[in-house]
Amino acid sequence: MNTPLYLLFCATALAAVFTPGPAVMLALQNSTLYGWRRTALSSLGNISGLLVLISASAIGLGAILRASATLFLLLKICGAGYLIYLGIKQWRAGGAKLRHAKAAPETPPNAASLYREGLLLALSNPKAILFITALFPQFIVHDQPLMPQLVLLSLTFMSMSFSALMTYALAGHLVGGNLADTMQSARFRRATGGLFVAMGAGLLTLKAQ
């Protein structure tokens, strides 16, 4: 892969990972509630999910999704359902206080729960699958060995995704103290919950094209 092509991929990926979406909302939520360091766990889960999607894309899952309307519909429903579940969970917790920067969270989830939450969020998002399927082939040089190119693109995309999520997490942590009041906390949780539900509903309008 030549340098100009790789730099173009980096610019495209950078714009993609910093665009707010479900993973960004999860990072903001967790950093505000539990601190930005613990958000690294859900972010690691998210990029692990991206690795699975990239691997699936490499063996033709994207093509299968485009070819099978039934499979794509099932994946959309699963992804939408998980996002809506997260949104309802956030909304119902609207009365609890958010974590202040210097206070300990009341019931912090364990590392496995945070990691699993990020992993499932990535794996349940068909839009991410289609994006990766559409993005990567554009930057593959077909007369060069495939695997080194896929490894380079995958590591670049995953590192950028993790950096973007942690940037948002740090921002969420810095404003967490301003959201510690119960009323502010309720508005924040219900707003993020509503966004998760909206994203889930949005997945149902996504078309494989």
How would you sum up this structure, described in words?
- The protein is an all-alpha fold and 209 residues long.
- It has one domain (24-101, 115-203).
- The protein is 75% helix and 0% strand.
- The chain has nine helices and no strands.
- The protein has helices spanning 3-17, 22-34, 36-58, 61-67, 69-92, 111-123, 126-135, 146-174, 182-203.
- α3 packs across α7 (126-135).
- The longest helix has 29 residues, at 146-174.
- The radius of gyration is 18 Å and the shape is globular.
Largest sheet: none
Count of individual beta strands: 0
* Uncertain stretches: 98-104, 179-183
Question: How many helix segments?
Answer: 9
Q: What portion of residues belong to β-strands?
A: under 5%
Q: Which structural class do the helices and strands define?
A: mainly alpha
Radius of gyration: 18 Å
What portion of residues is helical? over 70%
Give descriptors for this structure.
209 residues; mainly alpha; 0% strand; globular
Describe the SSE topology.
Elements: H1 3-17, H2 22-34, H3 36-58, H4 61-67, H5 69-92, H6 111-123, H7 126-135, H8 146-174, H9 182-203
Compact description:
With 209 residues, the protein is an all-alpha fold. Helices cover 75% and strands 0% of the residues.
